Amino acid sequence: MSQRHLQIVYRLIIVLLIFIIIYCFLLLRPIWKPILTTLMIGLLPFLLSGLIAYLLHPLVEKIESLGLKRYLAILLIYLLFFGGVGYAIYLGIPMFIKQMKEFSEQLPVFLNQYREWMHHLEASTSNFPKGIQLQIDERINEIEQWFNKLIEKTTKAIMKLFDFILILLVVPFISFYILKDLDVIKKACWYLTPKKWRKNGVQFLDSVNESLGGYLRGQLLICVIIGAAAAIAFSIIGLQYPILLGIVIAITNVIPYFGPLIGAFPVVAIALMSSVKLAIIAGVIVFVLQFIEGNILSPYIVGKSLHMHPLFIIAALIIGGEAFGIIGMIVSVPILAIIKIAIIHSRDHLIRTRQTYR
């Protein structure tokens, strides 16, 4: 067997081993998921604070370079960022709560309407051959079970969000101290890192920042634009719960490929409660917004900063969704980008090490 064939076999074995590890990891989910969930809840304020500090840091650096003291630069950014967010929340929360209340009141009506559609579909296929009828009945039952689980999960997620409000109140304070003492944190990490890893560690973090920085900031801006545009458009056409649905569109917009479908489902489902025409118009709005996002906003604001093949992104989305649902799909692409950078740096380090000892 030639050297080239051996390399191909070696790479196939590596890929197979990776899939086996991922499969075993998913099989052990009942063991590690509760532990990881508890850790994530405890670390959530620090993770969010770190993300906010990471997003605001370039602005603080730029203002500080103009001659303003660091703490004043942070206070200025805080007034603009948290002031804007707070004002938006102040305006949006009453409408959000009102729409949540209306949605909870209309939910039984919506479920009854959905069950009537299912019964009508079942009745309309009653004249089909017995084998086909059994298959249709099974699919209808599966769809009904999936829809009921979706409603249950959505309700639980909304209730958990309110449980986290007190925890999230400490996020601005943690972010402030991270931004203020960032140099101290960097020095502490530098001295805690073994000397032989410091240079490679700095290069790795620089690569992660270069790849992820623009992506995260760009995605955040795009989500705000698309979510606000969706809420305004839904309000104009008279769709119920425009703010809730705009938030759904904004959040699911982070998920590549599958996000538009996930976000469009509740929009079209709620629009169908009014009329088929409204559902078609709402679907067209979602399609137009996604077209604008994919062909204008993303190329201009985000670009191709991650440089990853779509197959790897889709695989990461499937694994993330299987492990942690929507949250897993949202964080899977940034985690994949970090893993990719780590693999490239490890490979380059091994190549340099081999060349040194030759």
From TrEMBL:
<feature type="transmembrane region" description="Helical">
    <location>
        <begin position="312"/>
        <end position="339"/>
    </location>
</feature>
<feature type="transmembrane region" description="Helical">
    <location>
        <begin position="157"/>
        <end position="179"/>
    </location>
</feature>
<feature type="transmembrane region" description="Helical">
    <location>
        <begin position="220"/>
        <end position="237"/>
    </location>
</feature>
<protein>
    <submittedName>
        <fullName>PurR-regulated permease PerM</fullName>
    </submittedName>
</protein>
<dbReference type="Pfam" id="PF01594">
    <property type="entry name" value="AI-2E_transport"/>
</dbReference>
<feature type="transmembrane region" description="Helical">
    <location>
        <begin position="38"/>
        <end position="60"/>
    </location>
</feature>
<feature type="transmembrane region" description="Helical">
    <location>
        <begin position="72"/>
        <end position="97"/>
    </location>
</feature>
<feature type="transmembrane region" description="Helical">
    <location>
        <begin position="243"/>
        <end position="262"/>
    </location>
</feature>
<feature type="transmembrane region" description="Helical">
    <location>
        <begin position="269"/>
        <end position="292"/>
    </location>
</feature>
<comment type="similarity">
    <text>Belongs to the autoinducer-2 exporter (AI-2E) (TC 2.A.86) family.</text>
</comment>
<dbReference type="InterPro" id="IPR002549">
    <property type="entry name" value="AI-2E-like"/>
</dbReference>
<keyword id="KW-1133">Transmembrane helix</keyword>
<keyword id="KW-0472">Membrane</keyword>
<feature type="transmembrane region" description="Helical">
    <location>
        <begin position="12"/>
        <end position="32"/>
    </location>
</feature>
<keyword id="KW-0812">Transmembrane</keyword>
